[in-house]
Automatic annotation (TrEMBL), chain A:
One of its GO terms (molecular function) is ATP binding. The lineage of its organism: Bacteria, Bacillati, Bacillota, Bacilli, Lactobacillales. Belongs to the ABC transporter superfamily. Pfam families: ABC_tran. This is ABC transporter domain-containing protein. It comes from Lactobacillus helveticus CIRM-BIA 104. InterPro entries: AAA+_ATPase, ABC_transporter-like_ATP-bd, ABC_transpr_CbiO/EcfA_su, ECF_ABC_transporter_ATP-bd, P-loop_NTPase. PROSITE patterns: ABC_TRANSPORTER_2. Residues 4-236 form the ABC transporter domain. Keywords: ATP-binding, Cell membrane, Membrane, Nucleotide-binding, Translocase, Transport. CDD domains: ABC_cobalt_CbiO_domain1.
From TrEMBL, chain B:
InterPro entries: AAA+_ATPase, ABC_transporter-like_ATP-bd, ABC_transporter-like_CS, ABC_transpr_CbiO/EcfA_su, ECF_ABC_transporter_ATP-bd, P-loop_NTPase. Residues 7-245 form the ABC transporter domain. This is ABC transporter domain-containing protein. It comes from Lactobacillus helveticus. GO terms for cellular component: ATP-binding cassette (ABC) transporter complex. One of its GO terms (molecular function) is ATPase-coupled transmembrane transporter activity.
Length: 266, 278
């Protein structure tokens, strides 16, 4: 599995007080969630990881290679990103052309491009909408389309910026399943999210960003057990913990199932 | 009942030009002043179309074939649009599209409608500060609207919609870009809104069950369920693909019933349930 390693990474925006400063960080797990308040540096990190921004110092290594030394095509095959707002990345006249355009950035064979595009659209459930204009789709569907554009390229590492945001429930289920399939098939999936219920239920590895730096790294159970930390970094615990709390139980629970397993015999 | 205290939708069917299927089919509903109505459903269920109809965006801005009728407190779009329009505060999807584009600051954006209504300057400033405080934007009043984050733009759109104290507030997924704390603050604010009749489309089922008087479920353009949250969520059909609120999921798993056999769907019912059982 390809993984991301950050070494002495710094980035400061001109005319802004914010700066990102990562001494050393290696994302080793297949499914990684990065959480933190707005302005903590999560999106800046992603822009560095995709080459949209260049670090002022330090290196990003993927499989030991310096990411910024790679050719554009090599970068696209290493790291693919799905943005928070799908409208930032959709511009083709049809759903199918949108996905094909992305694949065409990394290969020339037309038949393969089409085959990959159609397979990716099938995977997100948009195979009956190939001829539609992306802007006639619902917001959830546009978001799934932006996921399909990356699936079709099939990079080693998938970055998602707030993938659950604005998705309807059916799409949330679909995308969660795709996350696990990707992780199970040797890809690394790194996601920024504010959805703590989702993090608690689906992830094993969470990193907290705060003021441009990484703080906590560990499992959701470790994170949500530290009430003081959770509050300080502006997170909300998973909903099930709020419910337990209102019943006078302040233990750490990650999901309804987790609660049931611990309390079914009580 | 006196027609002036109700919002009524009768046999409403709408179809956008060039589309084969109607987006809304034979919708019937009645809402009373001050109720909070939660509208839920998956993609293409007709939620956003219904918001547009209630707001008068259909047919005033977006054209559509319309059958049936609706009125708000006896007022119809076709009878007196300015009066109908003035009753509504509206927050549509993609709130950035809704900003006037004319205001240099967040404060000016919120004040825009109030200035148009001819409110006195001193009162405008007071009202702007009030709603900015409610929406957590008091520190952002002098910033440019375009410089705000997605969640802040949604809060600005809400502040703008409520500035003129509308009788009806229509919000289409108003928290989609807010972080979890922002979302919690929004629903806490909504819980204490009185007198205003609220229509809110949201996928935040847990929060909705704490604030909604009534939930409408739309599925493929039809109103397939309407009632109190506890009634609606205890009778979900599988093909609507709508999850139960977390409290209900927990209660089902733990077999915690209410006295009437239903599962609790919100905090108050959960505590009632515990009271019954212990």
């Amino acid at each position: 599995m390809s993984t991301i390693e950050l070494n002495h990474l710094t980035f400061t925006y001109p005319e802004r007080s914010f700066s990102l400063d990562v001494e050393y960080k290696h994302f080793a797990d297949p499914m990684v969630a990065i959480v933190g308040q707005n302005g903590a540096g999560k999106s800046t990190l992603f822009k560095l990881l995709t080459g949209l921004l260049t670090p002022q110092t330090g290196v990003i290594k993927i499989d030991g290679e310096n990411f910024n030394d790679l050719k554009p095509v090599e970068k696209l095959l290493k790291v693919g990103i799905t943005f928070q707002n799908p409208d930032d990345q959709l511009f083709n006249p049809t759903v199918q052309r949108e996905v094909e355009w992305n694949v065409a950035q990394v290969m020339d064979d037309h038949d393969t491009i089409t085959r990959r595009a159609l397979a990716a659209l099938k995977r997100v459930g948009l195979n009956d909408k190939t001829a539609e204009n992306p802007y006639d789709l619902s917001l959830s569907e546009r978001k799934l389309l932006s996921v399909a554009t990356v699936l079709a390229v099939d990079p080693a590492i998938y970055l998602f910026d707030e993938p659950m945001m604005s998705l309807d429930w059916e799409s949330r289920r679909k995308l969660t399943a795709i996350f696990h399939q990707l992780a199970d098939s040797g890809h690394q999936v790194v996601t920024i999210t504010h959805d703590m219920d989702w993090v608690a239920a689906e992830f094993e590895s969470v990193y907290v960003m705060e003021h441009g730096k990484f703080g906590f790294a560990g499992s959701p159970r470790e994170l949500f057990s530290d009430h003081e930390l959770v509050q300080r970094v502006g997170l909300l615990p998973p909903r099930i913990m709020d419910i337990a709390e209102s019943l006078g139980d302040s233990q750490t629970y990650l999901s309804v199932n987790d609660y049931w397993q611990k309390n079914r015999d009580v | 009942m006196d027609e002036d205290k109700r919002i009524v939708i009768e046999n409403l069917t709408t179809r956008y030009p060039g589309t084969e299927q109607p987006q809304l089919r034979q919708i019937n509903a009645e809402v009373h002043t001050g109720q909070v109505v939660g509208i839920i459903g998956n993609s293409h269920s007709g939620k956003s179309t219904l918001c547009r109809v209630l707001a008068g965006v259909i047919p005033k801005i977006v054209s559509a074939e319309i059958e049936g009728d609706w009125h708000m407190f006896g007022q119809r779009v076709s009878d007196n649009w300015p009066v109908y329009n003035a009753m509504n505060g509206v927050v549509l999807q993609n709130p950035a599209d809704q900003l006037s584009g004319l205001a240099d600051t967040v404060a000016d954006e919120i004040a825009f409608d109030l200035i148009n209504q001819g409110m006195a300057e001193g009162l405008i400033q007071k009202r702007v500060e009030e709603v900015a405080t409610q929406m957590g934007l008091i520190e952002q009043l002098n910033l440019r609207p375009e410089s705000l984050s997605g969640g802040q733009i949604q809060r600005l759109a809400i502040a703008t919609a409520i500035a003129a104290n509308p009788a009806v507030l229509i919000m289409d997924d108003p928290t989609s870009e807010m972080d979890s704390l922002g979302r919690r603050q929004f629903f806490q604010w909504l819980a204490q809104v009185k007198e205003t009749t609220v229509f809110i489309v949201t996928s935040e089922i847990d929060d909705l069950c704490e604030v909604a008087d009534v939930v409408w479920v739309l599925h493929e353009g039809q109103m397939v369920a309407q009632g109190r949250p506890g009634e609606v969520f205890n009778h979900l059909a599988a093909d609507w693909q709508i999850p139960a609120p977390t409290i209900q999921q927990l209660a089902q798993k733990m077999d915690w019933h209410l006295a009437d056999g239903r599962y609790p769907v919100n905090d108050a019912e959960l505590k009632e349930d515990r009271y019954v059982h212990n």
